[in-house]
Amino acid sequence: MKSPLTGILPVAPTPFLDDGQVDEDGMRRVLDCMIDQGVDAICILANYSEQFVLSDEERARLMRICLDHVAGRVPVIVTVSHFYTGIVVERAKAAQSLGASMVMMMPPYHGVGLVPAEAGIFEHFQAVSDAIDIPIMVQDAPLSGCQLSVPLLVRMAKELEQVRYFKMEMPFAADKIATLIDQGGSAIEGPFDGEEAATLLADLDAGCTGTMTSGLQCEHIGKIIRSYLAGDKEAALAQWTACLPLINHENRQCGLRACKTVMKAGGVIKSDHVRHPLKPMTPRTRDRLLQLATDMDLIALRWGK
């Protein structure tokens, strides 16, 4: 893996068949499609991978399938989040042993009412950092209901050897990214944004060096980052403006279902099934999604045809 890692590091969806079973062949096809989109790395088993509806056995099996199939073509980031520190440590060690280039983890939480104090959060990340030799990406996301302060993030970056990357998704992410970089200095190796790149230009202005989106339109969002980092901010703005309608529709109307629906329409996977209690999107939302995807001539929409 190049260091520091920059660019677009999208989350791979987990495909299921119509009966809800994991589609192993579809998982391999998803990875191939994303690599053909020109991604800089792939993240697996994240929230947009529906990690919260997978059994432990399914999770372990998918990790093996993904790392075996990618086979070093791009770096693979394995999400290892769990409330119990011991499980996170074991997941991180397993990911490293199978060839992961990085792990990503959220702070420990179980609903907004069960979040440890900052000392416990630090110790949670410290245990993983001490157990592995690959980088850790800290995911700072609204889903956790956990407020990770900039001083805590800076302390983790400076004192924990493997904590080097940060995915910043909280409201007003740009200001937090800028402050994190200012206070953390060289310890902040990889500041990234998320939220389907909805705030990407502001976050790039603040100093982020990449984004972790879904696998929907990686070929287009990747151009934004590469243009910006090359110094062509006007081209980055123009490209981001072109991507915004689809970014907005995915982020605000579709969520994790968008990528799977487009990949099904494009012949990448057989089904866009989501496990209960998640529900399929409405025909109205789906029609608009596919119209916007067609307008962008997405690779995922024609990859399997």
UniProtKB/TrEMBL annotation:
A single GO cellular-component term on record: cytosol
A Pfam family the protein falls into: DHDPS
GO molecular function, one term: 2-dehydro-3-deoxy-L-arabinonate dehydratase activity
SMART domains with a match to the protein in the record: DHDPS (SM01130)
Enzyme class (EC, first level): lyase
Presence of keyword Lyase: yes
EC number(s) stated in the UniProt entry for this protein: 4.2.1.43
Key words, A-Z: Lyase
Protein family: Belongs to the DapA family.
Protein name: L-2-keto-3-deoxyarabonate dehydratase
Name of the coding gene: araD
